[in-house]
Amino acid sequence: MVFAIGQLTSAIHLEHVSWLEIFSFIIANITLWVIWINEVFYYEKYGDSRRIDFFSVITLMFFLGNLAFELNMDSRFWLETTGGASYFNWLLIACYCVIIIQYFLKGRHLGFNRDMKVSMGLLGIYILSVLPFALGLFAGNIWVVGIYFLPLILPRIANYYLYRGVKSETNFPHALERSQLVTILTFGEAVIAIISTYPLSSSLYQGALLFFAMAALFMFYMAQTFVGINHHQEANVTPLFYFHVLIFLGVNSFTVGLEFLADHHHVNLGLWFFITGVVLFSIGTLMTSTYNQSIYLLKKKHYLVFGVGILLFIIIGFLIGAHILPLSIHTIIMVTLGSRYYFMIRRHARERNNIPHPDPKLNLRDFS
């Protein structure tokens, strides 16, 4: 997955980047996320580290790595040719097939329940949806390529019609941990991008300021998901994964943006990627607050304040333009203010409910 994320952010570095290439970037983000999440769903419910689980995961890693190697954001790759796109889709089908085999082998061992059948059916639909591309029957177009959004839509429909009133079998703490892991890996790619694009030897202040801007985003995310969320609850994790789609796309857009800001050919586009990435990330992180402990749930007035803050970030960011020094300082200030406001909400909630503030000197591992 680390290699895949690296390929994801580097593949869009093209001579010409139009809205079609940006659309391809979004699709690639969603594709990688869907593979990751479907494997997470399997492991949370049925994975028991048997030998077949190890071998199947290794096989999935092999196909995913090769799929990442084939990532190409050039719209001509999808719209004018079928060769490269065909190979990409065969690898995507192979990834889905591995997960289906995992469910099938587990079903033979434990017996097939409804959840296994639904999961295998959905994966089968995903395979059928991209099979025409893999067979080279036709090249993609802007409407047909939208089929890659199907794995985001169908599970929501299936949950509504097939799982209403059914107790979730998903391990919430593990689901949150997996979501945090892929987010941390994505931030790791941002770190690499900052250091390689703005090394201290040639860019003393730019790299440092962008690094602290990235760190401010990371601290806001960890404050919400590590400290704010109730880790001991039983809840439907599907919304959590949807929220992390925005977070995943946001961090990757932020990474592409800071790289483009150093490229005079794409500097204006870099500003759009940078600001959009921060906004998507912030919205996704705030949406995870629906899983907070009851006393820490955000109210409408809190969302309104955060919304105004995000709007100010957008307006001031575009007024600043593609100037790294003021833009990075602006990002650090706005994200830090958001974090301080978030902790102020928590402090007031404890005081209203006569709950003592946590003492960090006790080194308790539950900071809620």
TrEMBL record:
Keywords: Membrane, Transmembrane, Transmembrane helix
Superkingdom of origin: Bacteria
Protein's organism: Streptococcus suis
Name of the protein: Low temperature requirement protein A
Membrane-spanning ranges: 22-42, 54-73, 85-105, 117-136, 142-162, 182-201, 207-229, 241-258, 270-291, 303-321, 327-343
